[in-house]
Amino acid sequence: MFAHSFWKTVTRTASITFLLCLMQAAASANNLTWYYNATLEDGGTVSGQFNYDASLSSNQLSAFTLSSTDAAFGDYTYNVGDSSVSVINSNLEFVFSQNGGNRSLTVRLNSELTDSGGTADTGISNEFLITGSPNNHNSTAVTLSTTAPTPEPSTIFLTLSAGAGLFLARRRLS
Q: Is pTM beyond 0.90 here?
């Protein structure tokens, strides 16, 4: 009688732990890091990353860092500390702007980003100065992609703990 109720409790605990691990993995998959690389027509480059969460209705971009090397404009890094981002045109354009500055970077997409990751279909992106000359450099080659999310250490720990508990409980009854 004791063994039956014990195994019933262990099975329930293991099932709940497994479901919690799945829920945590699903929740963390909503905020993906996208990696951006572009070559500008003057030979300059823009590269970096941003986090995107398609499940949010606004402010889907966070934690962005995009570095530009441009002979005409000089080097600059757009990041959360000194730049802002606007999502416009039904989530098909991201405009990174230097706070209080004269510089802006537009990333154009041919289709919306998703939380499933992969490679995005991009349009022509450009970096430009709001005033001054030359004031616009279009991209000639752009890639935008994600890497597979890695399980968090806490998820791995929970799974291993549940397995060790089952092993020890089974060994104790033997």
A: no
